[in-house]
Write a structure and sequence with these properties.
Elements: H1 3-14, H2 19-33, H3 37-47, E1 57-59, E2 62-64, E3 68-70, H4 81-84, E4 91-98, E5 109-111, E6 116-118, E7 125-126, H5 127-136, E8 144-148, H6 152-162, E9 168-172, H7 179-189, E10 193-198, H8 205-208, E11 215-219, H9 224-237, E12 243-246, H10 252-260, E13 265-268, H11 271-275, H12 279-289, H13 301-323, H14 329-335, H15 339-345, H16 347-378, H17 384-399, H18 401-406, H19 412-431, H20 448-478, H21 485-491, H22 495-501, H23 505-533, H24 540-564, H25 569-593
Parallel strand pairs: 3-4, 3-13, 4-7, 4-8, 8-9, 9-10, 10-11, 11-12, 12-13
Antiparallel strand pairs: 1-2, 5-6
Helix pairs in contact: 1-20, 10-12, 13-16, 13-19, 15-16, 16-17, 16-23, 16-24, 17-19, 17-23, 20-23, 20-25, 24-25
Length: 597
Amino acid sequence: MPDWSYHTIFKPILHELPPTFSREFIHRGISMLSSSAIGEACIEFLGHMAPSNKLEKSLFGVQFTSPVGLSGQIDPQLSGLKAFQNLGFGFIEIGPVSIRGTEKKEELLVDYQNEQILGLTGFSIMLSTVKEQLHSLKKKKVPFFIRVEGTFQEITEICEELLPLSDGFILNSNAFDSADQYNQFQEKLSKPVIFAFSTENTANIDKLKNYDPSGLLLEGCHSPDRMTETLLALRNSFNNVPIITSGGVKEPVDAIKLLENGASLVMLGFEYVFAGPGLPKRINEANSNRLPKESVIAKGWLWYWLFGSAITVAGFIALFFSMTAIILPYDEFFLGIMRKDIVDFNPAILYFMAHDRMTLSGTMISGGIIYLQLSRHGIRYGLHWARKAVNIAGMIGFLGILLFIGYGYFDWLHGLFWLILLPLFIFGYTKSKNSKAAPSSINLFNHKYWKLSLIGQLSFVLLGFALTIGGIVISVVGASTIFVPTDLSYLCLTPEALNEFNERLIPVIAHDRAGFGSALLSVGLLVLMLALWGIREGEGWVWWTFTIGAVPAFLSGIITHFIIGYTDFVHLLPAYIAVVLYMTGVICTAPFLLKRN
């Protein structure tokens, strides 16, 4: 559930439901999705949450992929544990855990106006439940820090039971009576022990100096400034001890300030619920942006750029022929009749073929522009998501050649075009394998332009998804029934009548339809992936790619119908909806994408 769907669709609905029910509904749903490899791939495709390798760090002898973790308050039932490992977190807190757990029913109160959640404390989960949940995990992807509560004997029992499943334990700062007792406990566990204390109660700080703790956890403050102030004081007392903060992070800038002022790791508290599930990704990208930039120029980007250029040029050539001759000599040779014979029989057939070929050419030009932009602004600088988008769309496009063969008509021009494109794509693929960089971002605040951009991003995602589905449907129709009812109404002919006139005419029309469907599928995937992975504050090239790239496809797809008189409202309704989604996306993302750093 990325931010563009959470804030625009699900959050308003879930806020009308009981808080505990809403939380468990979401957590169980995404965990169910995360239970399979396909589900995990789907989450990664939608969110691209994996943090940059530059953020990796080692603390307590534990490797972290990101300094951003999740507080145990967010998932006290562990119902979302499988999912949260896939949402960009570098570690997860589990608990508090006690022997018998809390018997009373959890009651949460949400103050939406002040963005506060009450009732998160005073609840613990039973030891046996934790063991069952952790053992049920097929794969442990991030470190787990287990918070333990109880008497010293109970703490010892819990830690021994969960020792193989934990990377460290979080205990209250008053859990031990003396430093000797702590040292014996630490030696027995051989796992990091992190002491937790509230910003409101720092009385045990001096006492902890004698303990030589593995780490410290600072929590209990929802004000970023107060958290930073306490953190600085704590860092002066414990210069070399890793310090984790919990809570007080409402937007990326809060986490960045904590990391810059001495926090080793930061955990997201209830503010995560209001900021949205994309917050860890946004923090990771903002954190990556403040690190030294690596000068990575992917050598193969130029081949991808030539690939996009060839598609764009071919699209303009196809547009010229679709507006002039329409039927080319090799078409006439295959049909065994001349262009004039078709016009004499039914001129609407020629207009119909022109409409198919013109929409194909516009789609090719739009796709070529997107390929050019992804190559020049993405792959050139090593962005792995840009290369992934080009590869997926390109491979799907090449597979579309199989649709041409299915109906017995494969013209030499398409074959020649395929042979020109294939080596360009292969060279780009093989020479750009060093494009592994994760994106960074200048976005630090949950400002109004960011919130508005989520509506625009949703519109672009829906547009990409709709174009992808449309490409699949047109490809299937082109390889099966060929015509939809409105096509036959426009032609005033039946398939049987067309076959009676020329039995090779339908294969030619099917060939055009399959070509358009294949091209639309590729472009739909490009739009979808660009919308899912490319929208970040200040990325003006992404806005221009959407804005300019869509124009040829929309112009050729809509104006052509009015030129030939094929204006059936039902037939054009998908195009009208696509234009509305496009305009909404362009308008709503402009202030966010075009903002200068």
